[in-house]
Amino acid sequence: MPPPDLKYGQVIKYREGDAVTDVKKRVVFGNEEEVLSALKLAGNSINTSYIERNNLTVRNGVSRLIRKTIDFSKLNV
């Protein structure tokens, strides 16, 4: 059971080939007004740009995550 103050939105992107043809946004937990008020500083829109930027920062900061394979990475000391 999620906590009652959880606000969670989802972005679904539909693609045809390499092009995004449609984007659907929906609120999973909480009501739409609560989610939009929580996003007031982020431009009043549910989007993936903030989490994608965070993922890129973490990936570039941790060299073992830069690899595209789940192979053994030896720490060179």
Task: Compile the SSE list and pairings.
Layout: E1 8-16, E2 19-29, H1 32-38, H2 49-61
Antiparallel strand pairs: 1-2
Provide a short characterization of the protein structure.
The chain has two helices and two strands; from the N terminus they run ββαα.
How would you portray this structure in words?
The protein is 26% helix and 26% strand. It contains 2 helices and 2 strands. By secondary structure, the protein is α+β, with helices and mostly antiparallel strands. A hairpin with a 2-residue loop joins strand 1 and strand 2 (19-29). The model has no long low-confidence stretch (mean pLDDT 77). A two-stranded antiparallel ribbon has the order 1-2. The chain has one domain (8-64).
The helix/strand order is: EEHH
Tally of DSSP β-strands? 2
What structural category arises from helix and sheet content?
alpha+beta
Mean pLDDT: 77
Helix run count:
2
Q: Which descriptor suits the 3D outline?
A: extended
Distance between the termini: 45 Å
Computed CA radius of gyration, to the nearest angstrom: 17 Å
Any idea how many domains?
1
Task: List low-pLDDT spans.
Answer: none
How does the major sheet shape up?
Answer: 2 strands, antiparallel
Task: Determine the fraction of residues in helical runs and give it as a percent range.
Answer: 25-40%
As laid out across the biggest beta sheet, the strand order is 1-2
Q: Tell me the β content.
A: 25-35%
